[in-house]
Design brief:
Layout lengths: L4 E4 L5 H10 L4 E4 L3 H9 L3 E2 L3 H7 L2 E4 L4 H8 L14 E4 L5 H8 L7 E4 L2 E2 L2 H5 L3 E6 L2 H11 L3 E8 L3 H29 L4 H8 L7 H9 L2 H26 L4 H9 L13
Parallel strand pairs: 1-2, 1-4, 2-3, 4-5, 5-6, 8-9
Antiparallel strand pairs: 7-8
Helix pairs in contact: 8-11, 8-12, 9-10, 10-11
C-alpha cells in the first residue's frame, strides 16, 4: 500500500479532500502556492512540498485536483513538472474534467511516466465533507484497485469505468446533459412566470413531481435560477468547452444536447442569450 499521498490543487474542492485524507490517517504531502492554504493544512497535519517537482519525487500516489487542462499541462509537463519527477511506480489520479489528449500528452512526455488514471468527480464540497463525492475512474484495473481505498476517504461511490479516458467521456456526457437540463429548467421557469406561477413555487413543486431533477434541486436550494447560474456557470462553461473539444477530437457531433445548451436562456455558453 502506498505510504505518501501527494496532493496538488488544494482549492475549493481540494482543501476538503485533503482534510478528509488526513482524517482517515493518511500521510498527506501538499504543494500549495497560497500561504493561507499552507498554514491551514499544516495546522491539520499535512506536510508541505517546496515545489511541484518536490511533491512528485516524494509521492507514491499523486492526486491532482486542478481546474482545467491548461493547469494540468502547466504543472505536469517540462523538467520541473510532476511527470518527469514522479517516483518509479507512482500513480497519478487526475480529478480534472478535461480531455484525453492532455492525459496522453502527459503520459507520452517521458519514457517512464507514472500510471495515469482519469478520475473526474461529481458533487460539491459538502459531498466531500460527508464522504459521498462520486468519483469516476478509468485506467489499469490494478492501479484503480490500489487507489480506491484512499479515495474512499472522501468519495463513495468510486466507479471504475474501464480504460484510460472512459471516465472523462462519461463525465463530459453527464455534464453536458446536466447543462441541457438546467437550460430546460430555466425555460420552464420562464414559461411558469408567463402563466402566473412564481419561480420559487415552481422549483419547490418540482421536488415532488415527475420532472424532479438534480438541477431543479440545486436551483431550489440556492434560491433560484439566477443564483444557480451565477454559482454553477463558471464550472459548466469550462466543462461544456471541454466536452466540445473532446467531441471534435473524436469526430462526433453533440447533437440535441449541444442545441439545448446553446439555445437555452442561461448564460452557460458564449452563444447563450443571458439569464432569466
Amino acid at each position: 500500500m502506498p505510504n505518501t499521498v501527494g496532493f496538488l490543487g488544494a482549492g475549493q474542492l481540494g482543501q476538503p479532500m485533503v482534510e478528509r485524507l488526513l482524517g482517515a490517517r493518511h500521510d498527506v504531502l501538499v504543494y500549495a502556492r497560497r500561504e493561507e492554504v499552507r498554514l491551514r493544512l499544516e495546522s491539520k497535519g499535512a506536510a508541505m512540498a517546496d515545489s511541484v517537482a518536490d511533491l512528485a519525487r516524494r509521492s507514491d500516489i499523486l492526486i491532482a485536483c486542478l481546474f482545467s487542462d491548461a493547469q494540468l499541462r502547466e504543472t505536469g509537463l517540462g523538467a520541473d513538472g510532476f511527470i518527469a519527477n514522479a517516483k518509479p511506480g507512482a500513480v497519478l489520479v487526475s480529478h480534472t474534467t478535461g480531455t484525453l489528449s492532455t492525459l496522453e500528452a502527459l503520459r507520452d512526455s517521458c519514457l517512464s511516466p507514472p500510471v495515469i488514471l482519469d478520475a473526474p468527480v461529481s458533487g460539491t464540497a459538502d459531498d466531500i465533507n460527508a464522504g459521498r463525492l462520486t468519483v469516476l475512474i478509468g485506467g489499469p484495473s490494478d492501479a484503480v484497485a490500489a487507489v480506491t481505498p484512499i479515495l474512499n476517504a472522501y468519495a463513495d461511490p468510486v466507479v471504475a469505468t474501464g480504460a484510460l479516458g472512459s471516465a472523462l467521456a462519461l463525465k463530459l456526457i453527464n455534464n453536458l446533459l446536466f447543462a441541457a437540463n438546467a437550460q430546460l429548467l430555466a425555460a420552464a421557469t420562464q414559461l411558469g412566470d408567463r402563466l402566473g406561477v412564481a419561480p420559487e413555487v415552481l422549483l419547490s413543486t418540482l421536488q415532488v413531481c415527475s420532472a424532479r431533477s438534480h438541477a431543479a434541486e440545486q436551483a431550489h436550494r440556492v434560491g433560484g435560477m439566477a443564483r444557480f447560474a451565477e454559482l454553477a456557470g463558471p464550472f459548466l462553461r469550462k466543462d461544456i468547452a471541454a466536452c466540445r473539444e473532446a467531441a471534435t477530437e473524436a469526430g462526433v457531433e453533440l447533437g440535441l444536447l449541444d442545441t439545448a445548451v446553446r439555445e437555452g436562456p442561461l448564460a452557460l455558453d458564449h452563444a447563450s442569450a443571458g439569464t432569466p
